[in-house]
Amino acid sequence: MIELKNLQKSYFTGDTETQALRDVSLSIAPGEFVAVMGPSGCGKSTLMNILGMIDTPSEGRYAFSGTDIAGFRERQLVELRKKNLGYIFQSFNLIDDLSVEDNIALPLRYLGLDRNQQKVRMREALELVGLEHRARHKPSQLSGGQQQRVAVARAIIVDPKLILADEPTGNLDSKNGDEVMELLHLLNEQGSTILMVTHSEDKAREAKRLVRMLDGRVLSDQSLSDQRDRKPFGGEV
Ligand code: ADP
After folding, report:
1. Which of 20, 58, 60, 23 lies closest to 38 in space, CA to CA?
2. Which residue's CA is minimally distant from atom 17 of ligand 1?
3. What pTM, to 2 d.p., does this model score?
4. What is the pLDDT of residue 227?
5. pLDDT of residue 110
6. How far is the CA of 12 from the centre of ligand 1 (A)?
7. Predicted confidence (pLDDT) per residue in 126-179, tens digit
8. Which ligand 1 atom is nearest residue 40's CA?
9. 217-223: strand order across its sheet
């Protein structure tokens, strides 16, 4: 699904060049659950931004679902990412003025579904994250864990090929963090491909594969056996 080959990314600040990514090659197959770890400044965000098509590499190849996206115009990239990518951020990034259901339904605008189809999708997503009874609430009326579940519902509503999660549990206590991880596992079991940046060794070990980065390079790329102690998703608290 994802093929990165000899990816380089340099930033220039005045005369100073920072090589954020140096020769990164990575393949991600459909159905994988990949955790990315590494110290601050090692290039994790840069990698996520390039994978998420909000930044472009300086050099190298990025193929998404077999299509080389180098040279794509901004409009084509927007189209591609709206239909194929779901994002989950550490800080939830919900719109405070919109209700839970309107936040979740936002990405549907780009799919050209009629109102009924939109409603069905929205209900399914709400149900999946166990927040049906919070549909009319505003994000500020929810706990952090609930807000992140809204963000998960928003990320999956277009049925994306790839979910990019940037420290999805970073702002949550351990119980809420575990619930969000359970949701990610559920989505993965249902076929979603997930790439997650995390600072937590424990959370990373829950993935099926662990990529460690250092100084803009892939330091190690390890397959993890799934030894998780499976708990059913607990739903609302
Ligand atoms: P991480 O997410 O692992 O903390 P980043 O991808 O944010 O790392 O950054 C990698 C390197 O690139 C760092 O040295 C950082 O300072 C540099 N960098 C990131 N974004 C920019 C930018 N817009 N301009 C200049 N340097 C940047």
Report:
1. 20
2. 20
3. 0.89
4. 53
5. 77
6. 11
7. 999 999 999 999 999 999 999 999 999 999 998 899 999 999 999 999 999 999
8. 4
9. 85-88, 162-166, 193-197, 33-37, 209-214, 217-223
Is the C-beta atom of 36 inside 6 A of ligand 1? Answer: no
Contact status, residue 133 vs residue 164, Cβ threshold 8 Å: no
Spacing, Cα 11 to ligand 1 middle (Å) = 8
Angle formed at CA 90 by CA 124 and CA 9, multiple of 5 degrees? 110
Q: How far is the CA of 104 from the centre of ligand 1 (A)?
A: 30
Distance (angstroms) between ligand 1 centre and the Cα of 134 equals 37
Q: Whose CA is nearest to atom 24 of ligand 1?
A: 11
3-state secondary structure of 162: strand
Pair 123, 158: CB distance under 8 Å: no
Nearest C-alpha neighbor of 50 from the set 105, 107, 11:
11
Ligand 1 atom 26: residue of nearest CA: 11
Reported as a pLDDT band with limits 50, 70 and 90, residue 194 is very high
Helices and strands, number each (H, E), in the chain: 7, 10
Helix (H, G, I), strand (E, B) or coil at 201: helix
Ligand 1 mutation pick, 7, 11, 90, 199, max ligand atoms within 8 A of CB? 11
